[in-house]
Design goal:
mainly alpha, Arc Repressor Mutant, subunit A, two-stranded antiparallel sheet, 15 helices, 2 strands, about 50% helix
């Protein structure tokens, strides 16, 4: 099936009838608050993001409010969302928005791409979901839906330059409907056309190239991402100590947080310093970014 046979109306109607009532989708949510949600949702489930996002919206309703906060406080508030460098980049982004953009999130994709920590997906997501623009918003879920429904493949494979063009070709000409369809594509991939157990019986699309082809198996080798015992877990344990401290701590506090592998602990500590997530004081203590004094 080519893109011209993709039933846009069926997908949009399904989304308008069944879309999840997520707080960042509601009327009155600002572009800054949508930007925060998009950063938080990268590689993190909605159920973990929602309570943290609500706290951040109340605490930092505009970029200047976050920019005025210390880096360490932003890292504390990030909590267990994972990949904490996102929090530091968002703090830096807030500073640029406050100082160079009048405390407003730009509407233009190219300007958005120039902001700290804002990549191709996030820039287009903000332009689409905050400002209603007709731009392709391509994440893993969207790529999988297009691969299956249009190309008859079980998986999209590695990201490619053609992904944006292929997705844009599916969007309706009408700007408002195009923005809705971008959200609908993501919703379909997240809830129905999932990676491991697609619920084809509930799919709103009347035609799907993958189904027509007999649901051929994927030729993509999946890597099982473990967390237990990894450097990521070790980094998280060390950060937990500093997030819970009221000031810089001695090295022994960090050593006790990860005793299973001292070499791994040292590697994790070094990487946190390199990433700028923690700092060392002049007398050898350790603290969150911006709190070394």
């Amino acid at each position: 099936m080519d893109g011209t046979a993709f039933d846009k109306d069926a997908l949009i109607d399904w989304y308008r009838e069944t879309a999840r009532d997520l707080p960042w989708r509601r009327p009155g949510v600002t572009a800054w608050q949508i930007l925060m949600s998009e950063i938080m949702l990268q590689q993190t489930p909605v159920v973990r993001v929602e309570p943290i996002w609500r706290e951040w919206v109340a605490r930092w309703p505009v970029p200047s409010a976050m920019a005025a906060e210390a880096q360490g406080e932003v890292l504390r508030a990030w909590g267990k969302l994972g990949y904490p460098r996102r929090a530091l980049r968002l703090h830096e982004c807030a500073r640029v928005l406050a100082e160079q953009h009048g405390d407003e999130v730009p509407t233009d994709v190219e300007v958005l791409l120039s902001l700290p920590g804002i990549g191709a997906y996030t820039a287009r997501a903000v332009a689409c979901f905050a400002y209603g623009q007709r731009v392709p918003v391509v994440d893993t879920n969207v790529r999988r839906v297009v691969a299956r429904a249009v190309h008859g493949r079980a998986d999209a494979g590695s990201p490619a330059a053609r992904d944006l063009a292929e997705t844009e070709a599916l969007l309706p000409a009408n700007v408002e409907r195009a923005a809705v369809m971008s959200a609908a594509l993501m919703e379909l991939g997240a809830l129905i056309c999932t990676a491991r157990t697609p619920d084809c019986e509930r799919c709103p699309l009347p035609r799907c190239a993958w189904i027509s082809a007999g649901r051929p198996a994927s030729d993509v080798v999946r890597r099982v991402q473990k967390y237990e015992g990894t450097d990521r877990q070790a980094r998280g344990r060390l950060l937990d100590v500093l997030r819970g401290a009221s000031g810089p701590v001695e090295r022994v506090r960090l050593d006790l947080a990860w005793t299973r592998d001292p070499g791994q602990r040292d590697r994790a500590l070094d990487s946190l310093l390199v990433d700028g997530l923690i700092e060392q004081t002049s007398d050898g203590l350790f603290a969150l970014a911006g709190e070394a004094g």
